[in-house]
Fold this sequence. Notes:
alpha/beta; 222 residues; 7 helices; 7-stranded mixed β-sheet
Amino acid sequence: MADRPNLAARLWYDAVYWSTFTFFKFGFSLRWDGWGNMPTSGPLLVLANHQSMFDPVLVGLASRRYLSYLARKNLFEQPVLAPLIRSLNAIPIDRGLGKDGIQAVLDALGQGQAVLIFPEGERTQDGEVQPLKPGVSLLIKRLSCPIVPVGIAGAFAAWGRFTKIPRPSPLLLPPESSSIAISVGRPIDTGRYKGKNRDAMMADLHNELVKQFEMAEKLRRK
């Protein structure tokens, strides 16, 4: 789905949006902040920490525009999941952000889309923001669009990689550790990284994600 999807695609995306909003708002006490920080038009790279399988949907709920997502190629081979992720404009990539993945992101950005990636490369092992994968720096060096950092908190407790089934935190009951919140940061101008080496760039991006993660953690219903 491009940044300006056709009517059918827009209606489908909106239907998924409102149904999942209801699910997370009442089932996981979802909160978010920074809605206005997401630019409403033009190419945009959205970076988020990765806590759970819920994350692509959660970031989409905190965005005021349609997002494209990266998804591993093997997910497109699953008969039930493949049609769904295709309908939501998922971009197939290998497990890592390799050459093909970088080009796929650049192609989507060239069409004016907002693309979400998880620069840690996999779900966190402990709930904290993990080091970023090296391929991210190669992508950033070729960008000329803003970058928006997004922090997710509570999703690791809700459905982390070691949790077999989701653990809800219903809105109408006392809060649990699995209540979820999202913080959207201000856009970063890629000019900020001109002349910086890879380590400095990666450290700065990591710090931005940690900052948003900590803000989301403060925002969670407790």
